Amino acid sequence: MSRYVLAGVAVLMVIVAGGFYAGKVYLEAENTRSTTTKVYSSKPAEETTAAKLPPSPVTKNEVKGQPAENVKKSTTGNTRTASTTASLSNVRRGWGIKRNDNHQQPEMPKAIRDTLARYDAYWIGSPGEKVLYLTFDEGYENGYTPKILDILKANNVKAAFFVTGHYVKTQPELVKRMAAEGHIVGNHTMNHPSLPDISDEEIKKELQSVEELFTKLTGKKMKYLRPPKGEYSERTLAVTRQLGYYNIFWSLALVDWVPMPGGPQEAYQSVMDNLHNGAVILLHAVSRDNTEALDRILKDARARGYTFKTLDDLVAKKS
């Protein structure tokens, strides 16, 4: 073989090797880019089958996020669109109530009570009146709301249902029934975000999107808000109040979005053991145990001398 042929073969091998190396570098660069680029889903979590809305969380003895604990600074969504909120704290707080079984109102630090009062937010009624305020959170339908409405109607009890945009879109007939039967339908936001994590303008969009759906469906307005996950800040209280909403927290809640080991009896006992004057009761309508226990709870609470009133009564009483 001539030296010219050998030289040509050598050059060809260099070209092939160089091309392979360049391709390898390109693929590695693409792989690196694909693992470092964030992927944002356009589908809200509550509209996926794998990730239904997380309810407002509680532990066995307390609602998650007792005000004195679990406080952290929000690191995202701090863009402000309203100059009146620019100086307000956006420290995220998780609403928390330590339950007791002595039928006394739960304690709440004065600083928290003062902040809530400043922005017309509510979590409990008068300590001197045996009045209860029944509320339900509705992120998705699990088949129990029709029976809950039947039980409320049979017992002549008016409740409040806090609905997400997903719920209004997928359960329009139930939402219309709630309103038609005299229940309050409150706002639980469009996509269930933690409000301290989003801007003032985004909060406005979250609330108005749900209200527009509800008003188109029923002709009624919304004025009560339950913050998703019970998370709030002074800024979010101010922004939502400026939008005309009263924030409604709670003073009695259960771990009720999963089946209870003791079934309906445990749900019943958990409520009855913790009843207190002015209780704002939070239940989740996805619970079979709550649904099966509800009729007994209503009847036995009345037998103990309690009456059921609405959030309109609560706000009027405190105003």
Automatic annotation (TrEMBL):
Chain intervals with Low complexity compositional bias: 74-86
Taxonomic lineage of the native organism: Bacteria, Bacillati, Bacillota, Clostridia, Eubacteriales
InterPro entries: Glyco_hydro/deAcase_b/a-brl, NODB_dom, Polysacc_deacetylase_ArnD, Spore_PdaA
Domain NodB homology: 130-309
GO terms for biological process, alphabetical: carbohydrate metabolic process
Top-level taxon: Bacteria
Protein name stated in the entry: Delta-lactam-biosynthetic de-N-acetylase
GO terms under cellular component: membrane
NCBIfam families, per the entry: spore_pdaA
Sample GO molecular function, one term: hydrolase activity, acting on carbon-nitrogen (but not peptide) bonds
PANTHER family reported for this sequence: GLYCOSYL TRANSFERASE-RELATED (PTHR10587), PEPTIDOGLYCAN-N-ACETYLMURAMIC ACID DEACETYLASE PDAA (PTHR10587:SF78)
Region (Disordered): 34-86
Pfam families, alphabetized: Polysacc_deac_1 (PF01522)
